[in-house]
Amino acid sequence: MEAAGWPEPVVRVQSLSESGAATIPDRYVKPVHDRPSVNNSTTSGSVSIPVVDLSSLDGSAATARAVSEACREWGFFQAVNHGVPRELLRRARAAWRGFFRLPVEAKQRYANSPATYEGYGSRLGVEKGAVLDWGDYYFLHLRPPSSLSAADKWPHLPPDLRDATEEYGREVASLCERLMEAMSAGLGIKPGRLQEEFGGAEGAGVCVRVNYYPRCPQPELTLGLSSHSDPGGMTVLLADERVRGLQVRGRGGEWVTVDPIADAFIVNVGDQIQVLTNATYRSVEHRVMVNADAERLSVAMFYNPRSDLPLAPMAELVSPGAPALYKPTTFDEYRLYIRRKGPRGKSQVESLKAHGDR
């Protein structure tokens, strides 16, 4: 298929999966040290990310402490009793499963480019010859309204997809606003402080990326999504509860496989909140494994600061004993890194370190 701004013609991973080939192309084979099969520290069951009950999220000091502790210690938690209707979760999942089941020709009309990443995609980064991930996706800007969210980027099928996604985006964005208050309270600063740094509730950006990981004949050689930390503010993930795949880097360097709780969200800190909190809350590397027997679909919503505001550690969290770790940078400037390079562990946020801390 035509490259449309990409360095090589785009290959849909779903088409590779459905071809019946017994091996994957060399372009998807990861270096030995990045393959999931050779990392003996991969764990599940004995170690897990925190689970936080959000039923008392508004104004509860105990809930704010639980959210804050999870953000400090793990950068990840599973949120239960979050208030987003279960039926809406099912509608959003069903609509996007329906899209990825369409013929490739129907999906291809929404093909994306590196200019905005909006639409149907199969790679990140524009480096020629890069090792690719085993996954397709659909990326959309939901807020603020702009030319980026043009009507021609919304799939016409399934019929319920746009309504379900927009309603889902509103509900999850509202949850993010409440979580931001809890995160601020857990830092000992006024509840609305983080939201102010994001440009207020109206200034914050909301994007959605629906990830589709087809069956893979050699899952031990590749990844659905390479190790990275999220470049934005906060991510709320509706995982595929039937098939595990998400792995989070633990403090000891081990990979912890997440067991999704039915109808829960997996929430994680992005690089921008790490910067604003002077690394009190930290973004954490994570990656996605693929499966030989089952496809996976997840819906990630990104809650981001206003893209033209310079972000740096908040003054309340800086002192002579805790100097500012990061130089001011706008989110517009920052996200160009991942658009050029693709996922690269924690290297992007490290690039923001203030000169004296390099």
UniProtKB/TrEMBL annotation:
PROSITE patterns (alphabetical): FE2OG_OXY
Keyword Iron: yes
Domain Fe2OG dioxygenase intervals: 200-305
Record SUPFAM superfamilies: Clavaminate synthase-like
Catalytic activity: jasmonate + 2-oxoglutarate + O2 = (1R,2R)-12-hydroxyjasmonate + succinate + CO2
UniProt entry keywords in alphabetical sequence: Iron, Jasmonic acid signaling pathway, Metal-binding, Oxidoreductase, Plant defense
Cofactor: Fe(2+); L-ascorbate; Fe cation
Protein's GO biological process: defense response; negative regulation of defense response to insect; regulation of defense response to fungus; regulation of jasmonic acid mediated signaling pathway
One of the Pfam families matching this protein, by short name: DIOX_N
Superkingdom assignment: Eukaryota
Single Gene Ontology MF annotation: metal ion binding
InterPro entries given in the database record: DIOX_N, IPNS-like_FE2OG_OXY, IPNS-like_sf, Oxoglu/Fe-dep_dioxygenase_dom, Plant_2OG-oxidoreductases
Family: Belongs to the iron/ascorbate-dependent oxidoreductase family.
Official protein name in the record: Fe2OG dioxygenase domain-containing protein
Organism whose genome encodes this protein: Triticum aestivum
